[in-house]
Design brief:
mainly alpha, about 70% helix, two-stranded antiparallel ribbon, about 325 residues
């Protein structure tokens, strides 16, 4: 065990990730699973980004936020999956340096927080589009969209800038063995020998601000949207609005249910098997399914993709 000694305490300079080391059979399945998930996520989200940038008809607030979400999902999986794929292939328990662990956790939390605010921004966009269509173009202009995206990314990284120093100021003298596939707050708090009351208080407080508040905002937005849709007698508009909102709500449920289960509960209730499973689902399922659930089933995106693939996106004059 690599460690730095200071008085009666020992602080780990590297951590051992025991998630895959404890799995004796089925590593080939996990290897294929993670490679497939990462490939699907990268190709699906990259395709959405490309289409949204190249097709002028998709230069709207909705697809601006979808582009942000697609870029975020690629970065999100890139923080954990490449490292996990390498770890699966190792015979000995894979290790990660102290700074490497801190960096992984920092970007993981940053992107998680950013996604919550982006989903809230998308809910706001849908609310204004459906409930206030006459002033939609005025309210959701380019400058407003840029501000909402900037606030989303800033809040996510500020949240991580608070949690990461608080977590890595602790002394890990009890063990350097993390019973997880990657570095995250709950498994790190479970192996520290320091008092974690401040960490828990900050985790719950910021969880309410970064996690629960956007979630409540999204629910409120869709409550107003549902009321407006039900009040509208145009059946065609009903179907289109409900289809768009149902896709967004599916993504929201996938993201928030696993996130709230992972972070907003006492440390004493952590379960190794359940936390590992939820952690893997939280970090792979939503980013991979987002393109399929939210964008690729959209007729406008499908048409734009056909034009791009067939080479009709641009017309050239010789």
């Amino acid at each position: 065990m690599s460690a730095l000694y200071s008085g009666n305490q020992t602080s780990a300079m590297e951590f051992l990730l025991l998630g895959f080391h404890k799995i004796k059979q089925g590593k080939s399945f996990f290897l294929v699973f993670f490679l497939t998930v990462y490939t699907m996520c990268f190709l699906g989200n990259s395709l959405i980004l490309t289409v949204a940038v190249l097709n002028q008809s998709l230069h709207t607030p909705m697809y601006f936020f979808l582009s942000n979400l697609s870029f975020l999902d690629i970065c999100y999986l890139s923080v954990t999956i490449p490292k996990m794929v390498v770890d699966i292939l190792q015979v000995q328990p894979p290790s990660i340096s102290f700074m490497g662990c801190a960096a992984q956790m920092y970007f993981l939390i940053s992107l998680q927080g950013t996604e919550g605010f982006l989903l809230a921004s998308m809910a706001l966009d849908r609310y204004i589009a459906i409930c206030c269509p006459l002033i939609y173009s005025t309210l959701m202009n380019k400058w407003t969209c840029l501000q909402l995206a900037a606030v989303s990314w800033t809040c996510g990284f500020l949240n991580a800038s608070l949690h990461t120093p608080l977590t890595f100021r602790l002394s890990f003298c009890r063990s350097n063995r993390i019973n997880h596939f990657f570095c995250d707050i709950p498994p790190l708090l479970s192996i520290t020998c320091s008092d974690t009351s401040i960490n828990q208080a900050v985790l719950y407080t910021m969880g309410i601000f970064v996690g629960f508040s956007p979630f409540l905002f999204i629910l409120a937005s869709y409550a107003f949207i549902l009321h407006a849709v039900l009040s509208n007698r145009q059946t065609g508009q009903h179907h289109k609005a409900i289809s768009t909102c149902a896709s967004h709500l599916t993504v929201v449920v996938l993201f928030y249910c696993s996130g709230l289960f992972t972070y907003i509960r006492p440390t004493s209730s952590y379960s190794l098997e359940k936390d590992q499973l939820v952690g893997v689902l939280y970090n792979t399922l939503a980013p991979t399914l987002n393109p399929l659930i939210y964008s690729l089933r959209n007729k406008e995106v499908k048409m734009a993709m056909r034009k791009l693939i067939c080479g009709r996106t641009f017309s050239f004059r010789i």
